Amino acid sequence: MENNAFYVALSLLVNLDATLFQIVALSLQVSLLAVLIAAVLGFPLGAAVALWHFPGRGGVIVALNALMGLPPVVAGLTVYLLLSRAGPLGEWGLLFSPSAMVIAQVVLVLPILAALCRQKVEELLGEYREQFMSLGMSRSRMMPTLLWDARFALLTVLLAGFGRASAEVGAVMMVGGNIEGVTRVMTTAIVLETSKGELPLALGLGIVLLTLVMVINAGAYAVAEFTRRRMG
User: Fold this and answer.
1) Which stretches of the chain are DSSP H helices?
2) What is the extent of the structural domain holding 121?
3) 159, 85 Cβ separation under 8 angstroms
4) 31 in a domain, yes or no?
5) Does residue 1 form part of some domain?
6) pTM for the whole thing?
7) Residue 161 in contact with residue 38, Cβ under 8 Å?
8) So what's the pLDDT on residue 231?
């Protein structure tokens, strides 16, 4: 039975099954947009925490590090409460839409990008501090320089964030509703199809998701190796 389901899953992939690839396309769209938004917000935040000293800075660093392990269901519940009809953003009507799924993934990924960016920027600041001081550079001018110099390391961070977003199931199911043709992504579809006993589609999506994870890890390894050789 399982072998037959596996062959059917391969057939779905080879024949470019419309349902399967619609789910994959939505998954990539949601995760890529979430990571892009998280990067635009998270990298400057992480760099700012590294560069400026202010009251409560230690608490911000602890919070960012703690939120790197934020349980997805907690993120999903938070976004659900914000976007529900009784919530402060309920009038926007975003609940059970791809936009809500993007928001949930941003909440999960942003602390990872910000915390890891802060660590890298602090390392570079220690190396370049005397040079910056001799040039009389302000902290606001240091930020783009340090972010650019850390670009290869931050690319690895981006890949890690995308991996977290694309593999997420709990939060996106809570705020997206797993609606067929609207908010059904790879992870939620795998859970649903498996619970229904429809293994071919679940296996096909699982193969795509596993391939995506392998590509992400290969990309992160390649970037790390390139950076190591460049620095060496």
Assistant:
1) 2-14, 18-51, 57-67, 72-83, 98-135, 139-149, 151-166, 170-176, 186-196, 199-231
2) 21-183
3) no
4) yes
5) no
6) 0.88
7) yes
8) 65
- Take residue 217 and report the two structure tokens written for it: 């890890």
| Domain contains 76 | yes
How many Å apart are CA 183 and CA 189, to the nearest integer?
10
Distance CA 109, CA 69 (A): 10
Q: How far apart are CA 39 and CA 116, in angstroms?
A: 11
The per-residue pLDDT for 133 is: 84
Q: How many domains does the chain have?
A: 1
Express as a percent the part of the chain with pLDDT over 70: 98
CATH number at residue 57: 1.10.3720.10
Are the C-beta atoms of 195 and 10 separated by less than 8 Å?
no
Q: What is the C-alpha to C-alpha distance for residues 140 and 136, in angstroms, rounded to an integer?
A: 12
Is 94 contained in some domain? yes
More confident residue, 41 or 139: 41
Please tell me the number of Cα atoms within 13 Å of 52 on its side-chain side. 15
